[in-house]
Specification:
- This protein is an alpha/beta fold.
- Helix content is 43%, strand content 12%.
- The protein has a five-stranded mixed beta sheet, with helices on both faces.
Length: 247
Amino acid sequence: MLAHIRAIQTDTKGEYGWPRVRKELLARGIRVGKDRVQRIMQAHGIKVLGKRTFVATTGSKHDLAVAPNLLARDFSPAAPDRVWSGDITPYIATDEGWLYLAAVIDLYSRQVVGWSMQPHMQASLVTDALRMAWFRRHPEPGLIFHSDLGSQYCSAMFQGALRSYGMRSSMSRKGDCWGDAPTESLWRSLKVRRLYGRRFATQREAMDEVIDWLTFYNHRRLHSTLGYISPMKFEENWHAGQAKKAA
């Protein structure tokens, strides 16, 4: 059992604590109780790597919103591509300068459907992430895109892109730290599990590490909100259910 647990920790680069380790063991056909997994991990000093407090540093600097809060903390749409959420992560340090990541999440499956990494926080950062998401998914008109009051999301460039794609803009109000909790959770997982305490030699090295984690997150990471399956699997199950209903 210890060998299986260590293999999972190696595969996930120390991503999982004991609840996810047990779920992964069960998914691999290994039946084991939670107490045994917890006891083995504690006895052998197997812990989640990089578990630290996360502090967001990219809050808005103004009070005016260009869109109402259509989401109102309802993070559970009934189907994919109904509600997306976007945000910018705090800086990623490299020897070539800061790097910033903007991501777009589908709130149904919590899948990252678009992203952009650039050495600045201009409007093109979030617009490029939105463009990637749109080209990958081609959602029906009327999708709600939720964000904070950041100047990038309030910009004419980004708001124009939303209109051109037939999307509706939604924004959290100033001081609402729970206004976009799923995206903040994504940043917390990325920062404390993979980036905490690291400084990359090049921006390319940092980009490769982030893309590797996003791929792991979408395809393999067991998401507690989704019943401990990956975002991709959760969405696949929905499509399978729709096909069965149509048949």
